[in-house]
Structures are given as structure tokens and as C-alpha cells.
Fold this protein.
Amino acid sequence: MGASKVFSTPLRYPGGKGKFAHFIKNIFEVNNLHDGHYAEPYAGGAGVALELMFHEYASVIHINDLDPAIFAFWQSVVHHTDDISRVINDTPVTMENWHRFKAVLANPQDCSVIDLAMATFFLNRTNRSGILKAGVIGGKDQAGKWKLDVRYNKIDLIKRIELIGKYKNRIRLYNEDALGFIGSVIPTLPPKSLTYLDPPYYIKGSGLYRNFYVHDDHVQIANALSDIDKPWIVSYDNVREIKEIYSCYRQDEYFLSYTAQQKKKGSEVMIYGPKIIAPENGLSQKVS
């Protein structure tokens, strides 16, 4: 059922790791994790989690995101699939609605879960690189080469949402700070599990995400992981500070193609927890 889809997630995400799923599948195979649980403390678009579930690598996926807008979206997709699909179908992709949903995102306490989910989805699909706080594709006067609906194929996106809804019994949702998730959720996972952490970039996180970190936040995550006896891996932008924070763990450097304002390749680093057997060849130097 939909296992051959190239894109599993309805969301666009800066540095999105959906194309990274083949490497995580390799981790599952090498570590004999088939039919185990898979967790993402920084789920965002949850592209990897969905791929692992659709292709029957993971029996249960745990999706966590602190951003209330992203959490509302996943709540709606998983538990109110028909409602969010209908709203997406019935909502015209116009600048008038772009302004309306931008106002919703600025005052989320005044709206329903479905309204917040729709605002999140609409801005994610119509903003540059899927960044919620970025500007609209084509500019506010829509004078650019591409218009705001260029990444908004309703039929395809609704199909993705409906497929996810069919798997709702295998999806667990959380709206926790990553530290809280590491401390309270990961210890409850079965031994046959993998947690993949993709924290905000060390250097450019503040420009890409609504929730971003300073140096001490990154240190706290590393310290929390040192107490975890379940398999985990972490990916980061490849900078000296991160490599020093995680200096006691195996690290592989690689390049990942991503789009954030402009398409380019970013140097990143994969960090392996002590319970992980790294694939024999590590990470390819190019993950594209």
C-alpha cells in the first residue's frame, strides 16, 4: 500500500532527510532492528519515519516535535485524516489565504487544531523552502517566475495524508522538548529500537527553524544521550564545535543535498551511539 512512493511526507522541510531513508534502512539491517520501534525527537516532516513504516522496517514510529504548529499538523493527519484532507481540498491557494494563515500561525491560541494544522500545511507548501517564517514563493506581489502554488499539488498531497491515516495505529505522537523526550520516552522503547536525532543546525538553525539552539542546548542533548542505553544516531552540520561535543563517539562525514533559499550541498556529520553497529562502509561521502 503506497510503498513505492518517492515522497512519503506531505511537508517540505529545510534539510529534509526523506532521501536519507536508505541509510537508516541500512542501519536497521546491520543492527537487526527489523520490526522494531523508530523514534524521532525532532520529527519535522518525519520523512524517514514514514518511509521506515511504509516499507515495513519499523513496526511503530514515534514522532515528536516541540513546535505546536507542526504537532497540530501531525495530530490532524493521524487522528483527523478526513477533516484535514477535506479542508485542504476546499481551500483555494491564494495570497488572501496566505495572509490569513500567516495570522493564524502568529496567534495559534485563538484557533482549532485543524485550523492550526491547515495554516502550517499551507505556509509549508507555499513558502520558500518550506520554512514557516520565510516569505511566499513568488513574492507577495506574485511577480516571480514561480507562483505560490508551484509546490501545492492537492491531489498528490491528500493521497499522502490519507495513506498516513491508514497507519494511525502504528504512530505515536508527542509534543515535548527533545530533552524531555530523551529522558521520558526513549527509555520506554523496546531494546529493538532506533532513535534518530536531527537537531537544529549548529550554525544556521536560527534562520531555518522556529525553535533553534544555542551552544549549551547542544551540549545538554549530548549529555542526555550519554545516559541512554538504547541504539541512537545523531546527524549535524559538520562543524568543529559539534565534533568536539561528541568526540567520544564514532563520526562519519558526508555531503547532503538540500534546499534552503538555494540548492546546495552541505557537509554534515553522523554520530553513532555506543549501541549501534555502523554499516561496514559507513556513510557514503555523497547522500543525494
Summary: Residues 50 and 254 are 23 Å apart (CA to CA). Residues 88-164 form one domain.
